[in-house]
Design a protein that fits this description.
The structure holds 2 protein chains of 2 kinds. By secondary structure, chain A is mostly helical. Chain A has helices at residues 5-33, 51-56, 60-91, 98-106, 113-135, 138-141, 148-176, 180-188, 193-204, 206-221, 225-230, 250-260, 264-292, and strands at residues 236-239, 242-245. Chain A has a two-stranded antiparallel ribbon with strand order 1-2. Chain B folds into 2 domains: 26-132 and 303-356, D-Maltodextrin-Binding Protein, domain 2 (3-Layer(aba) Sandwich); 136-298 and 380-414, D-Maltodextrin-Binding Protein, domain 2 (3-Layer(aba) Sandwich). Chain B has 18 helices and 12 strands. The chains are: A mainly alpha, B alpha+beta.
């Protein structure tokens, strides 16, 4: 049968239209606004060139937000994947009730980030503090979300608690797709559990690593809801001779610039930089991971 | 026959289309406000108004305290859901939303108040929602037990002595701490970096004397005055609960005072309804934020927020919105809402009712007495109080007065 190009395009049109309207047009507008002096409301908009891009790198809050976002992302990529992978090994073993555990580990992922943030805020600020005071554990007696050194770790802990179950499911699917014959053959050859995990299981699920690391990297980098509900940016910290908020990740810094300071133009410039960095990091990660994948 | 039938069908359908918009629909007015403490009162008031006013349906939406009102309002604008009546909190809001603010100079309510918001061209644009004020709130019962007369707390050293006395009697009086203060950048920054700091801008000056504030925003910060203020603030911090100070929320701060666990609180009269909800019945009042040795009893009183009408709403909606505001200001029903239900201090002269909250009563008395101080913090650039001053005020909890003075001075210099 002969294919008609026009028919193809016609079928793609609804998708293209939606993609154009909700992705391409706002993206283009965002880049445009980053080059202007727009405050978010005014109808009088002037082009100012790259001024907004220059000013952000002199801003202590932005630099600090940038650094802790990198830190937060690095911690999450390691911990979420480590925990997710270990849980996946656990629930694909011969454990009793493994389906129950599988569901149980996944449930936190179904709770919204805001709800979760407020629940854990209560845990950190009340439950743990009371425990610390009663038991005389001094490092618990003041809240872990109230210290610049621990707040990022507290956020990563909650994120891991929430997200590891989801990542676990991806690993479970990958592990289950490994041909049983491979594992049996290794078993017959006398390979122990750790040997089988290292030499067969991990190489065979390498494609899952590409996906999971990509997901943890991008979601951590873009984190906002948990950040907002759990810490709201506190506590304050002195950095580069200025008072700043020590747990304000990049997404929240962009929001604050746009909505708190009414500088939509500077916020857009930050968002453009944010986008470029995220794309670069993701591309590097995917290309490295892809090299490690093997075909079954 | 069939053609006739088709024609008839088309005719009926077309008529239906034409007929629909002809039906009289209620004028919908949407109010968007951020005073969470009056949420219940205003919701009931608009319900009553809608029921008694045929053809008008008023709805109200409230955004919680400390949340980002400007941001959500902007989101509504982008979504074409701009409310018909919204709030501004002074010059920053007026400048930002100027295009959307209607001139109400001819409205009846304007003649009944001195506190309308006027545009630079002298047009009355903002409906004063109520008078608000703050100072250092006290629990009169506890002070009496300790033998302290609040009328004598007119200087920094007098306040200091009272704090030391209370601190020594904490166990007898059932106190955890002397004062309830919070300054977290995620929660109570507005209490310290806006309200308490307003004492620096306005304290000990005539009501309309903005010389200190104007010099400060131009980067010329009076070091001696700022150091005195910083010592006072640090003193308040030292006598407060360290957990509430850096991690507490509004609820934590208010509850500590309402439960009689502190003798003082750095809040304003908007907390009155909260105390009623929490069942706190002890008499309350305000003393001034006295950071100098000069005697003063003045409180910080102003109309801090105004309702404005969306100038880009349809003329019917604008008219209905102004009628609604007139009703709020000039009728007994409106007075009942402002004073009795919302517990606010009325900004309108025709209102004869006296508010029942003790803090609000204290404001009415202070207003009659005179010698009060204006509010200036709302004139700072958008985000400056929260994102620039907020962290500096929190850092003082663990830092030094010298760092605080240097940081605040630098922050104002950076504005220029």
């Amino acid at each position: 049968m002969k294919r008609h190009r026009s028919v193809d395009i016609l079928f793609m049109l609804p998708t293209l239209l939606a993609f154009g309207l909700v992705v391409l047009v706002p993206f283009g507008l965002g880049i445009y606004y980053s080059l202007t002096d727009w405050n978010g409301v005014s109808s009088n908009i002037n082009l100012v060139g790259f001024k907004n891009f220059e000013s952000m790198f002199r801003e202590p809050q932005f630099i600090y937000s940038f650094l802790i976002t990198l830190q937060y992302t690095a911690i999450n990529v390691v911990f979420v994947n480590l925990v997710g992978f270990l849980l996946a090994l656990l629930v694909t073993s011969q454990l009793k009730l493994r389906n129950f555990y599988r569901a149980g580990f996944f449930v936190p992922n179904l709770i919204g980030g805001l709800v979760l943030g407020y629940i854990w805020q209560f845990m950190f600020n009340n439950v743990l503090v009371d425990m610390g005071r009663t038991l005389g554990i001094s490092w618990l007696a003041t809240t872990l979300t109230g210290k610049p050194g621990t707040v990022i770790w507290a956020m990563s802990f909650v994120n891991t608690w929430q997200y590891a179950g989801y990542i676990m499911m991806i690993y479970v699917a990958a592990i289950q797709s490994i041909p049983a014959s491979l594992m049996e053959a290794a078993n017959v050859d006398g390979a122990g559990f750790f040997r089988r995990v290292r030499s067969i299981l991990i190489p065979m699920v390498a494609n899952a690593f590409t996906i999971t690391i990509f997901l943890t990297l991008t979601t951590s980098f873009k984190q906002y809801d948990l950040n907002f509900a759990l810490t709201g940016g506190r506590p304050a910290l002195r950095f580069m001779e200025k008072g700043i908020k020590s747990s304000q990740l990049l997404a929240m810094d962009i929001y604050q610039t746009a909505m708190g300071n009414n500088k939509m133009n500077e916020a857009q410039a930050k968002a453009v930089v944010f986008f470029i960095i995220l794309v670069v990091f993701s591309l590097i990660q995917v290309s490295i991971n892809k090299r490690r994948e093997v075909e079954a | 026959m069939r053609r006739l039938f088709t024609l008839a069908l088309v005719a009926v359908l077309t008529l239906g289309l034409v007929a629909l918009p002809a039906q009289a629909e209620d004028v919908e007015i949407h109010v968007y406000q951020l005073k969470v403490e009056i949420n219940e009162a205003i919701t009931n008031f608009v319900k009553r108004y809608s029921e008694n006013t045929p053809g008008v349906n008023v709805t109200v939406e409230t955004l919680g305290g400390g949340a980002d009102y400007g941001g959500t309002l902007r989101a509504k604008l982008q979504a074409s859901q701009m409310p018909d009546i919204f709030m501004i909190e002074g010059k920053g809001g007026y400048d930002l939303w100027e295009e959307y603010i209607l001139d109400m100079s001819d409205a009846d309510w304007v003649k009944d108040t001195d506190l309308a918001y006027y545009s630079p061209e002298g047009k009355a644009v903002g409906f004063p929602i109520g008078i608000e004020g703050f100072g250092l709130g006290y629990n009169a019962e506890i002070l009496e037990k300790a033998g302290i007369d609040p009328a004598e707390l007119t200087t920094f050293s007098a306040t200091k002595e009272a704090f030391e006395l209370l601190d020594n009697m904490k166990e007898d009086l059932g106190l955890d701490n002397v004062v309830s203060v919070g300054t977290s950048v995620a929660g109570l920054w507005w209490v310290t970096s806006q309200h308490v700091f307003n004492a620096f801008y306005a304290g000990y000056l005539d009501y309309n004397d903005d010389s200190v504030y104007q010099a400060t925003v131009k980067g010329d910060v009076d070091q001696e005055r700022l150091t005195a203020f910083a010592n006072y603030l640090k003193f308040l911090y030292d006598y407060s609960d360290p957990e509430i100070l850096v991690n507490g929320t509004y609820d934590d701060q208010v509850a500590a005072f309402a439960n009689g666990k502190t003798a003082f609180i750095t809040q304003g009269n908007w907390t009155d309804p909260n105390f009623e909800q929490l069942g706190a019945t002890f008499p309350r009042g305000f003393v001034s934020h006295n950071f100098l040795e000069e005697e003063s009893t003045g409180l910080y009183i102003a109309a801090p927020s105004w309702f404005v009408v969306n100038a880009k709403a349809s003329p019917e909606r604008q008219k209905a919105a102004i009628d609604f505001l007139n009703h709020m200001a000039l009728t007994e029903d409106g007075a009942k809402y402002i004073v009795e239900e919302a517990g606010m201090v009325p900004a309108f002269k025709s209102v004869k009712l006296v508010p029942k909250g003790d803090f609000s009563k204290a404001l009415v008395e202070a207003n009659a007495r005179g010698g009060n101080f204006n509010w200036y913090f709302a004139q700072n650039p958008d985000g400056f109080n929260v994102n620039t001053l907020g962290p500096i005020f929190e850092l003082l909890a663990t830092g030094t007065v010298e760092d605080f003075v240097r940081d605040v001075t630098q922050a104002f210099k950076d504005l220029n």
